[in-house]
Design a protein that fits this description.
Chain A: Belongs to the ABC transporter superfamily. Chain A: Keywords: Amino-acid transport, ATP-binding, Nucleotide-binding, Transport. The structure holds 2 protein chains of 2 kinds. By secondary structure, chain A is of the alpha/beta class. Chain A is built from 10 helices and 10 strands. Chain A has a domain of 139 residues: Rossmann fold (3-Layer(aba) Sandwich). Chain A has a 6-stranded mixed sheet, sandwiched between helices. Chain A has a 4-stranded antiparallel sheet with strand order 2-1-4-5, with helices on one face. Chain B has a two-stranded antiparallel sheet with strand order 1-2. The chains are: A alpha/beta, B mainly alpha.
């Protein structure tokens, strides 16, 4: 088990954003959290990457309790996140953004970084074309690619993707999901948060459904995709 | 998608001044730098018409300008690099000056030179003490807290007899000097430059009437701070500041301990402010709380914003504009402040990014323009 979340509770002030949720992510999996707006998906992501303090419960990564570990120490362990809304450094160039991805790597000056850069450029050829362009001047899809590429430059064991398809054109969404599958097949475990449930369920090994801060369903991607109630609530199918 | 590639592939043909200088061969660059440095050192002796201030001692004005430059460089680390709005920067300036005052005159008799490192250290510690609890708040709140800090420092100075109260501290020793030789100046009164052997500056005597040696000292300090600034900005620290300023959460996700880096920016900025204050105390020989009014914080910030926050050469230019022009046009009496205010407003309207904005700001601006062109293109299609 790569990641284990147990009894997690997170508050924003007095408002409970997440109530007692537990889930696991195994080595090599794509696991998806789906749910409506405000269900607590992004909060869960931010808690795993350390941006939100935990009120109760534990987060264990690679056998190590990281519940109270500061966020900036987590990339060193192998957790890397592409945040919601992309969070590219808009004034920096594409290259500088990718270099920021290696900030926490102890081997950032070695040849391994070059290989990883090549790998990112293979996944996202568009980034290679734009290497000296300011991140802020790129389209939403390109910025999403950059955010994912930057997260990969940290050479994570677990890649957290928060709504990678948000605000993108349908064709581009397809492409992004293809790349997620490709990243996973190259050996990186992926935890995905999505509103685009149909695509996400099709691609993931397992999924959890979040509703108002609690996990209400779990199963394999296929199970949930074919479940009538899930279809009705999240996939826009008829009841 | 094809249109977007076309637009980006269009390169600028004409290199700007910066690029042309950067393209010069190294020996020429070194010679140019040396000539420029010599010019700066000779500036108060040359008495160039129009540049020289007619109504106040030019050496003194140049020293004041240099302290502003130094302060602007320090504040630029905080505001420009780390993106933290600091409205109480004068507090650190005061801490530096008063540390020298207390150690050398009020409660001790250390020589000026010994006091300077202590002043830097004390200012740095005060920066950390202020930053540690307050840097967790963001944006506007930080501005208010720092504003309060500047005022608290000033009020403490006014009300503490131990620190000299409203009268301040006098008899602060001057920097140590050696009198080696006399440097003549240039006289333009006949319309042509003539070497004036009657008006000379002693190298290197820190006296009470000739401020030129203080200006020279300040120039050397500025050069050292600049070297330090360049080294830090180009290191991992500089990159971490940039990331923190642009997106704090994303920076944390990349493994940047943002709080520590903000604190570091605060401490380094404070140290340079303190150094500046120590220079000021050494030149004046006398300090009182009135020298550290809130207005000064605003002027320091204006220097950074006018010049182009984040670009060290920009903020130097901004500091010169903010401190030199009011002195140069002293003959217009109170009107100069009015004109100065108007000029600042015009700058804010027509050049909000500053006189010399950093590359990334230009980059972001170009990106905006490009986005605009694209949207218009889509609307037309």
């Amino acid at each position: 088990m790569l990641l284990e979340v147990k009894g997690l509770c997170v508050n924003y002030g007095r408002i409970e954003a997440i109530r007692d949720i537990s889930f696991t992510v195994d080595q090599g999996e794509i696991v998806t959290l789906i749910g409506a707006n405000g269900a607590g998906k992004t909060t869960t992501m931010k808690t795993i990457s350390g941006l939100r303090p935990v009120r109760a419960g534990t987060v264990t990564f690679d056998g190590k309790d990281i519940t109270d570990l500061p966020s900036y120490e987590r990339p060193v362990l192998g957790i890397s996140q592409s945040p919601e809304g992309r969070g590219c450094f808009v004034g920096m160039t594409v290259m500088e953004n990718l270099e920021m991805g290696t900030y926490a790597r102890p081997d950032r000056k070695s040849k391994a970084v070059k290989d990883d850069l090549e790998r990112v450029f293979e996944l996202f050829p568009r980034l290679k074309e734009r290497v000296n362009q300011a991140a802020g001047s790129m389209s939403g899809g390109e910025q999403q690619m950059l955010a994912m590429g930057r997260a990969l430059m940290a050479k994570p064991k677990l890649l957290l993707l928060d709504e990678p398809s948000m605000g993108l054109a349908p064709k581009l969404i397809q492409q992004i999901f293809d790349i997620v599958t490709e990243i996973n097949s190259q050996g990186t475990t992926v935890l995905l948060v999505e509103q685009n449930a149909a695509q996400a369920l099709k691609r993931s090994h397992r999924a959890y459904i979040l509703e108002t801060g609690e996990i209400v369903r779990e199963g394999t991607g296929k199970e949930l995709a074919n479940d009538p109630s899930v279809k009705a609530a999240y996939l826009g199918g008829d009841v | 998608m094809t249109t977007t590639t076309n637009v980006t592939q269009k390169k600028k043909d004409r290199p700007n001044l910066n690029e042309r200088i950067a393209d010069l061969p190294l020996p020429i660059k070194v010679v140019l730098w040396i000539l420029f440095a010599l010019f700066l050192f000779a500036l108060p002796l040359l008495n160039i018409p129009f540049i020289t201030t007619p109504d106040s001692d030019f050496g003194g004005v140049l020293f004041t300008v240099s302290t502003y430059v130094l302060v602007a460089l320090g504040l630029n680390i905080v505001v420009g690099y780390a993106g933290l709005l600091d409205l109480g920067y004068v507090g650190f300036y005061a801490v530096g000056a008063y540390t020298v005052g207390v150690l050398s005159s009020q409660h001790g008799s250390l020589p000026w030179l010994w006091c300077v490192p202590v002043a830097i250290a004390v200012a740095m510690v005060s920066g950390i003490l202020l930053g540690a609890p307050t840097l967790r708040v963001r944006g506007d709140y930080l501005a208010i807290v720092t504003l309060g800090f500047g005022e608290i420092v000033r009020l403490t100075l006014v009300n503490s007899q131990w620190l000299g109260g409203a009268q301040g501290i006098s008899n602060i020793p001057r920097p140590p000097g050696i009198e080696l030789f006399e440097v003549p100046s240039i006289d333009w009164s006949t319309g042509v430059p003539v070497v004036d052997l009657g008006t000379t500056t002693t190298f290197l005597k820190f006296g009470i009437s000739d401020f030129i040696p203080y200006y020279w000292l300040a120039l050397v300090v500025i050069a050292l701070v600049l070297v330090f600034d360049i080294l830090v900005k180009n290191s991992r620290v500089g990159r971490a500041w940039e990331a923190t300023r642009e997106d704090e959460d994303a920076a944390e996700l990349m493994g940047v301990p943002t709080f520590r880096f903000k604190l570091l920016a605060f401490a380094l900025g404070a140290a340079i402010g303190g150094l500046s204050g120590a220079l000021f105390a050494g030149k004046s020989g006398f300090i009182n709380p009135q020298s550290f009014e809130l207005l000064l914080s605003i002027l320091f910030l204006a220097a950074v914003v006018v010049g182009g926050q984040g670009n060290r050469w920009g903020v130097i230019l901004g500091a010169i504009v903010v401190s030199y022009f009011p002195e140069r046009f002293r003959e217009f009496a109170d009107f100069r402040v009015l004109v100065f205010g108007l000029a600042l407003m015009l700058l804010a309207i027509f050049r909000p990014q500053g006189l010399l904005p950093p590359r990334r700001t230009l980059r972001a601006k170009r990106a905006d323009a490009r986005q605009h062109v694209l949207e218009e293109g889509e609307a037309g299609a």
